[in-house]
Amino acid sequence: MNPSFFLNRRQMLLNMTALGVGGAVSAAFPGAGFGQAAPAKGGILSVATSGDPPNYDIFSNTTGRTLRVVGPCYNALVMVDPKDPSRIVGDLATSWEASQDGLAFTFKIVENAKFHDGKPLTSADVKATFETIRNPPEGTVSVRKDLFTVVDAIDTPDSYTVVFRLKRPSAAFLSALANPWCLIAPKHVLDAKGNTKSVVVGSGPFMLKSANSGVSVELVRNPNYHVPNRPYLDGITVYVVPDRGTVALYLKTGQLLIDIDIPPSIASELQKTAASTVNVLSAVNFNGDSFVMNSKKAPFNDIRVRKAIALSTDHADALKVVYNGAGSVTGFLAPGQWALPANVLAQQPGYGPNMEARLAEAKQLLKDAGLESGFKTVITGRKNAGTHEGRVVYLADQFRKIGIDAKIRLEETAKYLEIMNNREFEVATTIISATADDPDALFATFHTCNGAENYAGTCNPRVDELFAQQSRTLDIQKRRELVNEMEILALNEFGYINLYFKNKFVAVHKRLQGYVIHNEPDNNMRFQEVWLS
């Protein structure tokens, strides 16, 4: 079967429900789409990043700094189509089929793929990768294990066949497999190291050549790539440029050809001053700017304190101040078919329109908790990473309105991730992020009791019950009702406070051809289909 087509009506339903791409995506700029002039071979793609990757691990990382480097170096089993963000297509998989009961997915994989060290890629590597994701060995952190709790077993009947056996039907299984971090690592590396922190041994179109800390990472074309005539580029250089103004200047001059994540202020400036050389693409994104309170540390172990802070949080003002208004205020799910209706959201604590009444209630809650005079805390955020610094400053100012004195603590990415993974914070800026608009992807890891990124540490067993129930419900309307009930309960735990969901902006120099923006640009990091004019 051609992997870009689905096999039967049931699988079509599963795939379409799983992908669930919602929201508008801007059209590719003229001359940049597929079907234009024949692709040219050669050249180096220069990509911007705000800092060094903390390491190369595909299991524990969530930062785009790592994915900028490793995304082009690996393959996945399936992926979101780089030409069309509404479809899931094969990457290593040449075909797949779902059983009639929805409890087994059988994949055939290519037979000529090799890792960069020359060893062949087989079904054993696929199994080893997903076993590491869903059941990591001691010492390995897997932040995406919650995506695969539905998997009961993985079989490899031959070297090029993989069978995923599920505990129950899953409406989101294929979209989980298409997560851009679900990259296939060599079994021999995982057996030796348990993770990929220190090595990049993929099967992808590019190979790691060198890394110069604080300066750049250099990737070169894989001469033995299993896809004929790909990639077109000779290589990719990822440049570390922390200052956003400098990035804009380099885009204008062509020293940088793409920046995957530009803030709206820079996007607006480029549209005004560099329209002849740079195109700015935008899409509704599945990335929410959030902060989290550690329910295991006093006084945040008192739900009244967490609720007080939730009531005092002005989401619309935060969106305006921190992100130039370029986004949407929703709850824990992105704008689209799964988000709470606006009238229902407005009834939740912290979302009502009467800010004066909310602040009064927040102060009363603190008084009831024995904190009428307020208290001191620390807000932790990441340095030079998106809106983290802006959010930390904004939140510290907002906390003062109800008598909370917040000290700001900013850490480099590696240290920040260590703090978050070890739950060594009181309040911290974080994100809610997924690669598909689906409750399984956007909810489980952050809000279920044992979620890998449930940094708040809150636990409502009914939330977990509803999550499991909605995940196996294929009827869209019934699933939406369950999702709404689940989200309302989770919102009222007041562990995560999602300020807003962002629009995504990507700046592309007009020399770069064949690039299409996705709702989540991380879905399109292979770069095997792009070329330079």
Automatic annotation (TrEMBL):
Q: Please provide the record's keywords in A-Z order.
A: Signal
Membrane: is it a keyword of this entry? no
TM ranges? none
Give the Solute-binding protein family domain ranges.
88-452
InterPro entries tied to this protein: Peptide/Ni-bd, SBP_5, SBP_5_dom, TAT_signal
Tell me the first and last residues of the signal peptide: 1-27
Identify the Gene3D superfamilies for this entry.
Dipeptide-binding Protein, Domain 1, Dipeptide-binding Protein, Domain 3, Periplasmic binding protein-like II
- What compartments host this protein? Periplasm
Q: Which PROSITE patterns match?
A: TAT
Asked if the Swiss-Prot or TrEMBL record annotates the protein with the keyword Transmembrane, the reply is no
Q: Which PANTHER family match?
A: D,D-DIPEPTIDE-BINDING PERIPLASMIC PROTEIN DDPA-RELATED, PERIPLASMIC BINDING COMPONENT OF ABC TRANSPORTER
Family according to the record: Belongs to the bacterial solute-binding protein 5 family.
Q: What is this protein called?
A: ABC transporter substrate-binding protein
Q: Please tell me the species this chain comes from.
A: Rhizobium puerariae
Identify the taxonomic lineage of the organism of origin: Bacteria, Pseudomonadati, Pseudomonadota, Alphaproteobacteria, Hyphomicrobiales
